[in-house]
Amino acid sequence: MNRAINCHVGCRCSHLTIEVSHGSYRNFTQRFVKAVVNTYKDLIEWPKNEHRVAEIKNGFMYGEGRNAWGLPAVGALDGKNFVIESETVHAEDWRDCKGNFSMKLMAVCDDKSKFTYISAGNSGRSHDAAAFNLSEIATVAMENHGEYFPLDGYILADSAYPLSHYIIVPYPASEVLGRSGGASAKKKFNKIHSSTRKAVERAFGILVSGRRFVSKHIYIKDTGDIVGIIIAYYILHNLCIEMNDPVLEEDNDETSNVDVARPDSFIQSVNSTAYQNGRIRRHSINPYFPSQQ
């Protein structure tokens, strides 16, 4: 059915062979999406319970299959663009840097690649940092850190996101050059940061490899329908993990590129106080500095 509702040829063939119209497919899909979201929406839940937070931290540190120990984070943050049909009005507002019309999704996952937060609906043209600033993490969670970040937790993200006390990104390239003790410690930190953060990249890879409907091109015009379908698929992803379904291999297309940090001057200009607090926090959790050993 995924192939049929996501392919014009599939819809036409189905209409000719079993007389199911495109409108009927849309109705079936909308009803299914609504049922999934209403029934299982609690499967995407931010970890506020201290026991749950401690469990996630321990999983990131000593997770199964990890070659080296990781960082005790409470989540890994990243974004993904889904290619969609062009909009009839203001189409260029949805064109991303690769020339595709796309919708941006931002997500956080735990150590088992289970999603704990998703935000969909922004244009793929938006920068990751801009989408983050409009998210509940930036507007609610970080303003209520005692509730949303118990045990002084933090999230790992790549350098597209703003550094702060609760969002830890890698050290910029300017700080890992050379052979000094400090540069070496920061380079090692970036490596373990990347290894730990791969949980969210793996989650994206598993999602699209098992559900080709969202992997290449979503042939649906209504952006509201697209948001609903994406949320439903992420809920189903978590449901599969809850049911201990066999883990799918992630799609090779989802492997991450080498992270290139932004210059300090750019990040600091976004929010100087938050940035400086983030620098202090990042240094304090870096296990490779002599003071942390």
From TrEMBL:
It is found in: Nucleus. GO terms for cellular component: nucleus. Keywords: Hydrolase, Metal-binding, Nuclease, Nucleus. Residues 77-238 form the DDE Tnp4 domain. InterPro entries: HARBI1-like (IPR045249), HARBI1_dom (IPR027806). One of its GO terms (molecular function) is hydrolase activity. Its cofactor is a divalent metal cation. Belongs to the HARBI1 family. This is DDE Tnp4 domain-containing protein.
